[in-house]
Description:
This protein is of the alpha/beta class and about 325 residues long. The protein has one domain: Aldolase class I (TIM Barrel), CATH 3.20.20. It contains eleven helices and ten strands. Strands 1-4-5-6-7-8-9-10 form an eight-stranded parallel β-barrel, surrounded by nine helices. Helix 2 runs parallel beside helix 3 (about 95-110) and helix 4 crosses helix 5. The longest helix has 18 residues, at about 140-160. It is globular. The two termini are about 40 Å apart. The mean pLDDT is about 95. The chain binds ligand PBG. Ligand PBG binds near residues 118 and 217.
Amino acid sequence: MDLPIRPRRLRGTAALRAMVSETSLEPRQLVLPLFVREGIDAPVPIGSMPGVVQHTRSSLRQAVAEAAGLGLGGVMLFGVPERKDAIGSGALAEDGILNVAITDAVAEVGDALTVMSDLCLDEFTDHGHCGVLDGEGRVDNDATLAVYAEMARAHAAAGAHMVGPSGMMDGQVGVIRAALDGAGHHDVAILAYSAKYASAFYGPFREAVDSSLVGDRRTYQQDPGNGLEGVREALLDVAEGADIVMVKPAMGFLDVVRRVRDAVDVPVAAYNISGEYSMVEAAAANGWIDREAAILETLTSIRRAGADVVLTYWAAEAARLLRG
Ligand code: PBG
């Protein structure tokens, strides 16, 4: 039959498909989140995230070196302290686990890789919230900002190239920018978790950081139904000095990734979170899906939606797959 338009013509060979492929996926666009736990002498597997571990300081160094060797864009470090308290003091201490891990990572790779740090209190507080609490047990926005400012200075002093405020306190990016500049850290960049939703898919992460949270984070993280609000949060963060804005989670929020990409003129990141990882791993372990194909399709979809950078627990493996 004469059909003037046959889209299948461009799908007939692998070469044709490659030539017209719209979306690239490259190791440099991927960031590997890594957990480092205080007081352990061997890596501890995270049951709900098969293949992911809580690192010792020395296994973290190896993981960071490997990430650099694979040409990844960066690593995002999370600390799991031995002791937690109401104000998260472990986050500020010079010998706190995250601060020493940042120094270790930078000592290992220098500027070959972007070393980023999660700037939040939930791993360090005994109540598990991302901030300090007021007399009524509510998360106190402005009191928390003062702690974030100190934490930003601690991460920068430890050598972080970029800090990632993830606590969703109002004004956090502006306060952190001012704190960094005030301490002479003008070159330390901010990757803002801008549109961060209160998601059920963070479940496995809570195990990864031994979280003690009871309840939820709905007074500071966003309602999953709100797309426009995600754009508003991203615009606010750009105005406050964010160098990169992030949407999180990724897969259930690809429309928000697109809307934010269209609305801002800074790079956009998306976080392919723990629950998204575990779903694919669990299905693959049951033989229900092709694991490697599902990984690449997931990451490609996040890129297609508009993310320039993707944080993913598969970063190292995806880099290996992409190199063939
Ligand atoms: C907060 C933080 C969280 C994640 C990244 N940073 C947890 C939360 O907000 O509850 C989740 C990442 C994931 O689920 O993979 N420090």
